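subagent[fold] <- orchestrator: predict structure for attached chain, return tokens only, no commentary.
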Amino acid sequence: MEDRPLADLFEPADRACWLGLVEGVLKGADFEKRLVSRTADGLRIVPLYGAAEPADQPMRAPGPWRIAQRVDHPDITAANTQALADLEGGADALVLAFAGAPGARGYGLTAASVEDLDTVLKGVMLPLIALRLDAGSQGLEAARLVKALAERRGEDLSDYDLDLGIDPVGVLAATGSLGAVWSEIAPRLAETASELEAAGFRGRAFLADGRPYHEAGAGEAAELAAVLATALTYLRALEAAGHDLATARDRIAVLLAADADEFVTVAKFRAMRRLWARVEQACGLDPKPLRLHAETAWRMMTKRDPFVNILRTGLAAAAAGMGGADSVAVLPYTQALGLPDAFARRVGRNSQVVLIEESHLARVGDPAAGAGGFEALTADIAEAAWAAFQAIEAEGGIVASLSVGKLQRRIELTREARAKDVATRRATLTGASEFPNLAEKPATVLDVPPPAAPRGTNFGAGSAVACDALPSQRLAEPYEALRDASDAWLAKTGRRPAVFLANLGAVAAFNARATFAANAFAAGGIEAVSNDGFTEAAAVATAFRESGATLACICSTDALYAERAVETAQALAEAGAGAIYLAGKPTELSEPLKQAGVHAFLHVGCDMLALLNGALRAAVRAPSPQQTA
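subagent[fold] -> orchestrator:
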């Protein structure tokens, strides 16, 4: 018996050989359409990459990323309980989300004095953890509270690993207004930095936050470009006030949204470090590691089937960590439903503990190095982001671009394209647009009313900068609105809107399309009433009347449609169906079917949101067949 390695028994594979095999499988189909995907910015992702030479890639300092937990309970005593539980459970960083900040998601700390903040952080040894503030328009006041807290405790600010999160540009993008013109705000930022440094502060005072752009629908390149332009704006403000550039760049940190697209998220975080290093070099500085934070994306969170959010945020946290984030904050899986309880917070925290301590994902400094797909995508995103950044700079910088709406318009185009993908289910949302569970039990959140948001901004008072605020949207919201309407109808009538599946022929003939239709209608909160199939139109009509449904959907094969679909549609229309659908793409039978009463065709790639909105309106407007009989 020949004793050779298995690989030696086969001819070496190469790309030409692989392409030949692919062509055989495609059978003439377009390679680009079938096997090449694209990012939101239009960057190509091909199905196969060869090994690559690792690029000169800046990464975080050796060691694991920090596990950051948001502290956002409006009651300061309860907030302290949150903070202590998180630190005891494995977190080594806290994010203080203040009421009124966009990142507080409607809740947040109400600490208005140094005494309040001391209560929130009672028992927390600040020199041993990292602390980041998320205070939105109250950023300067929150920074002063931390400075006062250090003095109250007799501690030195230089001992704190501190990110103050001051981000007036992000506030402008998210809210559409600031309390003063930029020429007044910029010197105030520099004065704040000087005051903090005089008190011993050595952390990051300013944050270039990518969340407002990501939540508005921006692609990866646009988010990075906005963040880069924001960071450069702060760098210029500090330099103009006399701050040394080498010190000024140490006062700036970046926060990016991490979503469940693992490959793109890893590449985006790697690209951010490359882009900032390029800015540093252009300023005549030797690049230093950028402080790069991550928070799992609000855009991808769903209210329906929220347990799927655990998978989304877990994957996003892993991608951010592998991409080089210094800290990762995971949104609890019930964040979109209200204020998360201790269990949801624990799940989010433990997902990172598992990634670091059990999966050892932080053991390698740059696990994507040399991987052809990651290297190519990192380079492509960085190149596209730099071009988008140059466009912002050509418009006078990010404040000017936002003020005249140019950046918003570009993001709007990407948002509309993504919304179309969501509507057609090209971009699937498990639990919302795909595989919905109409019988799901509601997840629990804390019964806490949202606090009143502080009014105004402490960035200044006078002639304010204003712009069109970027919208903060979750992708699942249109489907959730349909489900909410279905729930309201259920509460009112005792039954959900229903669609009768007019299955033709044997189970083998209708099962695939009936299953597809039931899943599709459920995404709109419409319950499917199924059966074992029919051979006569009269029997279909009788069963429809008895079902109590107001909608009907014909399901079978194209061959049986040719034989029975028209007469079935006519029978259903005569039986009082409020709207009739057919599972399948339009064919030469389309016109006869429409004349017989078919309202729309349900198929892969159709505008599902439009169809479901129309179906739900028809279902709640039409009388039941029993009422018309």
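orchestrator: received. Logging for downstream: DSSP finds 23 helices and 15 strands in the chain. The radius of gyration is 28 Å.
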